[in-house]
Amino acid sequence: MEILGIIPARYASTRFPGKPLAIINGKTMIQRVHEQASKSSLTDVLIATDDQRIMDHVLSFGGKAIMTAEHHQSGTDRCFEAYQLHDQPFEYIINIQGDEPFIRPEQIDLVASCFRNPQTQLATLIKKISTPEELFNVNAPKVVINKAGEALYFSRQPIPYCRNVPNDIWHKQHTYYKHIGIYGYRADILEQITQLPPSGLELAESLEQLRWLENGFRIATATTEFETIGIDTPEDLERVEKSEI
Questions:
Q1: Domain of 137?
Q2: Could you tell me which of 157, 158, 178, 180 has the C-alpha nearest to residue 169?
Q3: 3-state secondary structure of 124
Q4: What are phi and psi of 155, to 5 degrees?
Q5: CATH number of the domain where residue 218 is located
Q6: Could you report the per-residue pLDDT of 151-178, keeping only the tens digit for each?
Q7: Same domain as 171, residue 86
Q8: Is the dihedral of CA 144, 150, 153, 155 positive or negative?
């Protein structure tokens, strides 16, 4: 399969301006994400940015970058513009988060494997939840899947509700999954979902993938055993300074 990996990397961030250029053990975050993505089976890797400083830095370490608009509300929208501006058509695109420098190549390949099924429109990763702290963390979206492994719903709250069971053992009574924020799109589906207006469920939960489900699109999931470490704040960066890739 011919698959294009796109890493959205915007400069502005309310909690961490200039985040893609933050240094982790001698390398920038965006360079580390690019290196991890380049170890996967992707056909090509492209960084989509809105800032010349990021563009220049990516080119300096030999990466490919493309300038996109500043106004995009989501990484999905930025990915689509980058794909439109790219000079080569691809059937599939994978959106790799630019703030996860420890993403594993195996995780990217796992998303790609979902497209071996020609019926797959969209794909993402999930991970089994093993602690009540993780289950009730509203910053870690959960996903409910059907027997075919397709997403039924995403929520910041635990779903389903375990009636007559203490909260601290819900994860032992039912298999709950956390959503890992990497997305795969069939190119024609990517174009369609970027034309959709925000939906009621999306606005309620602040999760863009609910817009896709609410409009009838199907999201395949694959289960990973590996955790991901997103960096949203300078404090997050301090916590991973001793980590190694």
A1: 118-227
A2: 158
A3: strand
A4: -155, 155
A5: 3.90.550.10
A6: 999 999 999 999 999 999 999 999 999 9
A7: no
A8: positive
Mapping DSSP to helix (H, G, I), strand (E, B) and coil, where does residue 8 land?
A: strand
Q: Is the dihedral of CA 134, 140, 143, 149 positive or negative?
A: negative
Number of H helices, E strands in the chain: 10, 11
Q: Is the pTM of this model over 0.90?
A: yes
Q: Is 27 exposed, middle or buried (0-12, 13-18, 19+ CB in 10 A)?
A: middle
List of residues 6+ apart from 238 with CB closer than 8 A: none
Residue 154 lies in a domain: yes
Q: Is 237 domain-assigned?
A: no
The Cα–Cα gap between 137 and 180 comes to 14
User: Cα(99)–Cα(70) distance, rounded to whole angstroms?
Assistant: 18
Looking at the structure of the chain, the number of domains it has is: 2
- The tokens for 178 are 């956390």
CA distances from 27 to 15, 21, 33, 120, 126 (A): 21, 9, 10, 36, 28
Q: Within 13 Å, how many C-alpha atoms sit on residue 208's CB side?
A: 16
pLDDT band at 243 (very low <50, low <70, confident <90, very high): low
Same-domain pairing of 122 and 207: yes
Same domain, 70 and 15: yes
* Token representation of residue 175: 């298999």
> What are the phi and psi torsion angles at 133 (to 5°)?
-60, -40
